[in-house]
Structure formats: C-alpha cells, structure tokens
Specification:
Length: 55
Amino acid sequence: MAVKEKVGVVVSAQMDKTIVVAVENRSPHPKYGKIIVKTKKFKAHDQENKCQRRR
C-alpha cells in the first residue's frame, strides 16, 4: 500500500532535521451533520532544515 500524502501547516521546527506538521481533517458529525475539525500532529523529516514556522 502506498503512503498517502497529507498537507498541513508547520507548527514546530526546533528539532534538527525534523519538523512537526498539523493536519486538519474536516468531517461531518455522524448524528447532527455539523462539520467538525480534528487536528493531528505528524513528525516529518526535513533533511536540509529548509522549513520555517509561520507566525
């Protein structure tokens, strides 16, 4: 199975060659139908330390 690509926002770039990315998942509530935003943080490899945190 292939790795699914996700798009997110860099929330931390303090570690060496590693960044933390927050990915939002929007889905409707099963009973009420309201859109709920869930956020999950992933660690990603940044070989050249290019990524910067946005403020």
